[in-house]
What we know:
It comes from Tetrahymena thermophila (strain SB210). There is one protein chain. About 40% of the residues lie in helices and about 20% in strands. By secondary structure, the chain is α/β, with parallel strands linked by helices. The protein has 2 domains: about 10-170, NAD(P)-binding Rossmann-like Domain (Rossmann fold), CATH 3.40.50.720; about 175-340, L-2-Hydroxyisocaproate Dehydrogenase, Chain A, domain 2, CATH 3.90.110.10. It starts with a strand and ends with a helix. (2S)-2-hydroxybutanedioic acid binds near residues 108, 250, 251, 253 and 254.
Amino acid sequence: MDRIHTLGRHMCPNKQLKQPIKVTVTGAAGNIGYAFVFFAGQGRLFGQDQPIDLTLLELPNSKRPMMGTVMELDDCAYPLLANIRTTTSIDEAFVGCQVAVLVGAKPRGPGMERKDLLSENGKIFKAQGEAIDRYADRDCKVLVVGNPANTNCLIVQRYAPSIPKQNFTAMTRLDQNRADSILASKIGVHSRQIRNLIIWGNHSATQVPDASQGIIMNYPQPGMVTAARGAVSNDKWLTTEFVETVAKRGAAIIQMREKSSAASAASAACDHIHDWFIGTQSGQIVSMAVISDGSYGVPEGLCFSYPVTCQNGKWQIVQGLQWDELTKKRIEVTTKELIEERDLALQSLAANTK
Length: 354
Ligand SMILES: NC(=O)c1ccc[n+]([C@@H]2O[C@H](COP(=O)([O-])OP(=O)(O)OC[C@H]3O[C@@H](n4cnc5c(N)ncnc54)[C@H](O)[C@@H]3O)[C@@H](O)[C@H]2O)c1
Ligand SMILES: O=C(O)C[C@H](O)C(=O)O
């Protein structure tokens, strides 16, 4: 461990604070990691009464920017940030870890698909799965952000067999938030008024944004709730342009920024963890990629984005939703892609260990 920085609980102004939750962030000096740690320090993960201990993991050649990030975190003096540790050792990074946020990986550049990162990033997630299996808290909860996120999550889970399967998730919350914002601007409302848009399948161009369950709160007047389909009143747009714009938003951002999305990804990671731990509101559905139990005919063991509700730190897949023919076809495509990614990843990991 390179550094332990202890602010000390006595320095926290709120005497009612609980024991800190141990959060490990990989790729902490990267674009997403850099935004995420400040959001985490501000209490976006578990609320304003829950301190955290942060452990930051980076590659040795990014140690200096990681230390610089810690200097800035120190200077923020966040009351909820009890301890900060930094390391470049994967073995140290996950000791006692209760929440692992796996960001550290290579991002795609212009013209690449996320699955082009499969073989390089697969090795990272295998090693992290093994380290989580060995060193983390037995109920460690994992969020995979690094791409291809679903398949990397499947790899981590496979290499951490002693941790419950339900504890491994990948992020499609960014896609959900994008869907909310695109629909909100179409209708002329705030994204926070949009609920229950669903992302099915892979965090890739084959993902299936689905507005069939969507509702608009306080629309057209305060106190009223309107179905998204009724509010848009243009099914063609909802099943074509809307779906494509959401699915290609990541690529569109890369075109503009010449780098992949960062702050919005970090913010979505906070939303994901927050809802998982604190719970969704009554009637609220969010999207999370989880290890499939076979629900909706998806092969067991794939990491597939489903509509879920969360309570008491556990997610539950919303069952019994119906798909129209077009959605059904799209879901077949995204499922097929996930099967191909899984097979490719497992083959390439097996070849590497020979
Ligand atoms: N799921 C999503 O919605 C979503 C959204 C945006 C980006 N991403 C993905 O997140 C990943 C990170 O993106 P970024 O923009 O922060 O990239 P970045 O290149 O800015 O940062 C990645 C950081 O990870 C570090 N790193 C690499 N391998 C590591 C390892 N084995 N252990 C620890 N640290 C390691 C690097 O040193 C770097 O600092 C990419 O794969 C990107 O495609 C996912
Ligand atoms: O698109 C990418 O490669 C980065 C990220 O997955 C995103 O959706 O913004």
